[in-house]
Design goal:
Largest sheet: 7 strands, mixed
Number of helices: 20
Mean pLDDT: 92
Bound molecules: S-adenosylmethionine
Distance between the termini: 52 Å
Low-confidence stretches: none
Number of domains: 4
Number of strands: 14
Pfam families: Methyltransf_25 (PF13649), MethyTransf_Reg (PF10119), WHD_PKMT (PF21782)
Helix content: 40-55%
Strand content: 5-15%
Keywords: Methyltransferase, Transferase
CATH superfamily of the largest domain: Vaccinia Virus protein VP39
Shape: globular
GO molecular function, one term: methyltransferase activity
CATH class of the largest domain: Alpha Beta
InterPro entries: CFA/CMAS, Methyltransf_25, MeTrfase_reg_dom_prd, SAM-dependent_MTases_sf, WHD_PKMT
Radius of gyration: 25 Å
GO biological process, one term: methylation
CATH topology of the largest domain: Rossmann fold
């Protein structure tokens, strides 16, 4: 990258800073889980060294530094404005295990340092070829023995179509200087094309409409940096992997397990895919062809690491599993064959017919939000009234069958599997507490980062409860009475007109519901021992 290209990128991100968010699937806890599933003993996230390339204002890295206080975090970026914003928050929170530095990817040179987790989200496709090569080089030179690198990037074939739209938007927007005007103009052009092109070519119209839907609700900064930025260089997955291999890196997996499972295709399609695919790289590439994939979040490790691609019970040993699915009223006993629909809080239904899985899942769901160790499942099943696991000689076979079915459920995001449990309260503590980051984010925007590294949109009740969390029960009651009287909080479930007519019992009930909601959203810290 030439000096002028670097300055141009720096300038664009200073002019229209990127909204910097947490990405759940980049958290070292999750990366370590994925590595273990594929047979690699990743470094302990709780005592690790983490690097983020292009960290912007630290929206991803700062919450990690809070949940992993004994780990060390380094982020670097080219935009001084974004870094200053991040540093302000770090100072305010008094964090000492994180550094944000101003550095160009091309100039990053730390031969003496190693990192267990390297994260590069939303950067790779948007920098010139030289910087992309340098990202691989940084991974090659600084990744620890069993370390993992996460890189996200735009892919073909999906970006052939999206790239066409991008070029039209760039053509139009370059007539204007100010980034915000460019974004407004790009949106206007897309609207115009969508309306005007509809008469001529229905297929083309469908394509434009889809793009319009994608950008319509996104922030200006997203549209600008995704579509109007000078560099946006998608590639096929196999091309990405050719370059990664040259840099001594090996494909581990995608960070989202469900993306690796071709479950939405028919058995015939899955069979053909298997025949076509001589190895994992081919298999993934053909999947991209089928899915018209536009984006990947790939995990890489050192080339010489041994991996295990036949997934089974061995990979799940020691793993913690939980699920918020609800066990329905039983029409037939769990140990008999027959469909049973477990429902998720979002209203999805998982229909299970295997007695072994029904009993296993029932044991998991009954413990929620506590995690169950995979190794403890046969014991929990055996303790049920009419256990499906009776024959100890068959135990290994049962373990394998259960593991394979649980992995399928994980692939549909119906259960959670982790190598270490989320660092959150499992029941409402006597003295509930949240993180200083959540208290700060709650005053500055619509979203906060919870203890599972997810973005959570708060309602008014959540906000007020978090603000008075450090008070005792009487103090919280008083706080709510005042807010309701001042009409700062409208409590729709109670008929409150004018003055607060709620008695202490009703207020306690309201607060207790609210605390349960904070617990379910992973916003409460575990009780101090
Ligand atoms: C699209 S943003 C993504 C930010 C963040 N990783 C995220 O996903 O929220 C790209 C970031 O990469 C930074 N960047 C671009 N080119 C860079 C370079 N050559 N060296 C360091 N940072 C760079 C930009 O300043 C910007 O903060």
């Amino acid at each position: 990258m030439s000096a002028s290209e670097s300055i141009e990128i720096e300038y664009s991100y200073d002019q229209l800073p990127y909204d910097s968010h947490p990405y759940e699937k980049t958290h070292p806890d999750h990366l370590a889980t994925m590595a273990r599933i594929f047979g690699l003993e990743a470094p302990d996230p709780a005592q690790s060294r983490v690097l983020e390339i292009g960290c912007a204002s630290g929206g991803n890295l700062i919450p990690m530094a809070i949940t992993l206080p004994e780990s060390q975090f380094l982020g670097f970026d080219l935009s001084r404005k974004e870094l200053e914003e991040g540093q302000k928050l770090i100072d305010q929170l008094g964090l000492t295990n994180i550094r944000l530095e101003h550095c160009d990817i091309l100039n990053f040179d730390r031969p003496e340092e190693t990192f267990d987790y390297i994260i590069c989200h939303g950067v790779f496709s948007w920098v010139p070829a030289e910087a992309r090569a340098k990202i691989f080089q940084i991974c090659q030179e600084t990744l620890s023995e069993n370390g993992l690198a996460y890189i996200s990037y735009n892919t073909f074939p999906g970006w052939f179509m999206r790239g066409m739209v991008r070029q039209m938007l760039c053509f139009h927007a370059r007539q204007f200087d100010d980034p915000n005007t460019q974004v407004e103009q790009a949106r206007a052009l897309l609207d115009f094309l969508n309306q005007a092109a509809s008469k001529y070519d229905p297929t083309y119209h469908m394509l434009l409409q889809r793009e319009l839907e994608i950008v319509r609700n996104r922030q200006n900064s997203y549209l600008y940096h995704e579509h109007l930025e000078q560099d946006n260089e998608p590639m096929f997955f196999y091309q990405f992997m050719e370059q990664a291999n040259k840099a001594g890196l090996r494909y581990l997996c995608e960070t989202q397990f469900s993306e690796m499972i071709p479950s939405q295709f028919s058995p015939e399609v899955t069979q053909t895919l298997k025949k076509l695919s001589s190895d994992i790289i081919h298999a993934e590439q053909y999947l991209d062809f089928l899915r018209n994939r536009t984006f990947r979040r790939t995990l890489l490790c050192r080339k010489d690491r041994e991996l295990q691609r036949d997934l089974g019970a061995d990979q799940l040993r020691g793993m913690k599993i939980r699920s918020s699915l609800k066990l329905p009223p039983l029409s037939i006993p769990l140990d008999r064959p027959g469909d049973l629909g477990f429902t998720s809080p979002a209203g999805l239904t998982a229909t299970i017919s295997s007695p072994l899985l029904k009993q296993g899942l029932a044991a998991i769901c009954q413990k929620y939000p506590i995690y169950v160790r995979f190794d403890d499942l046969p014991g929990l099943i055996a303790s049920q009234e009419t256990p499906t696991i009776r024959d100890t000689a068959k135990l290994n076979q049962d373990y394998e069958e259960l593991a394979s079915m649980l992995l399928q459920l994980w692939g549909q995001d119906l259960i959670e599997i982790r190598s270490s449990p989320a660092r959150q309260a499992m029941s409402v503590p006597q003295s509930p507490q949240t993180t200083p980051l959540i208290l700060s984010q709650l005053e500055s925007g619509d979203y906060v980062t919870n203890l599972k590294h997810e973005m959570i949109q708060l309602n008014d009740m959540d906000r007020h409860l978090l603000r008075c969390l450090d008070r005792d029960a009487a103090g919280r009651r008083e706080y709510f009475r005042q807010r309701i009287e001042a009409k700062e909080l409208v409590v729709s479930t109670f008929d409150v007109e004018g003055a607060c007519e709620m008695d202490d019992g009703q207020l306690d009930q309201l607060i207790s519901h609210g605390l349960k909601r904070l617990l379910d959203q992973a916003l409460l810290l575990p009780e101090k021992k």
